[in-house]
């Protein structure tokens, strides 16, 4: 019985993956953006429920909607475009190319992206410019250090093993944990 249930679940997951692949082939840009926004939202739900332990009755749905909008409007388009640019800057799929992409990504892109993400989150949370600058001064360095613990190995693997059109999805799956941290950091007052 347990084996039958497991086989059924694996079959359903494989079917979902095939559907995702078909949509990705037909509408790559849209699917990447929807995936990013949805997974930023999942990260916020995880943050509120597991990190902050708010419980369902205290869940801030408006905050989750704001974080999802950042995913749809900022994270998905910006990271998706960045990966295309990065693939043009560093051509090839060798280990050395993956290492170069990771270094460029982490030295040039990540610091700017992280600062912009925190500023956009602050603005959507109604912070004044002065409050946003104060929050950025307080949280940016910690968030950047946490970024450097997580993302370099993920990005090397991503750039070496994953085709361009799936990189944003792979990053966003890993980013559920990262987004949980970021949304907690961005919404900590």
Q: Explain this structure to me?
A:
The protein has 189 residues and is an all-alpha fold. 27% of the residues are buried. The protein has six helices and no strands. The chain has one domain (1-187). The model has no long low-confidence stretch (mean pLDDT 90). It comes from Seriola lalandi dorsalis. This is Mitochondrial inner membrane protein Mpv17.
Helical fraction equals over 70%
Number of domains: 1
User: What is the mean predicted local confidence, pLDDT?
Assistant: 90
Give the terminus-to-terminus CA distance: 50 Å
Number of strands: 0
Structural class: mainly alpha
Organism: Seriola lalandi dorsalis
InterPro entries: Mpv17_PMP22
Keywords: Membrane, Transmembrane, Transmembrane helix
Membrane topology: Multi-pass membrane protein
Quick description:
It is found in: Membrane. The chain crosses the membrane at residues 67-83, 103-124. This protein has 189 residues and is mainly alpha-helical.
Write the layout of secondary structure elements.
Elements: H1 2-26, H2 28-51, H3 61-89, H4 95-124, H5 129-161, H6 164-187
Protein name: Mitochondrial inner membrane protein Mpv17
Pfam families: Mpv17_PMP22
Main location: membrane
Keywords for this entry:
189 residues; mainly alpha; 6 helices
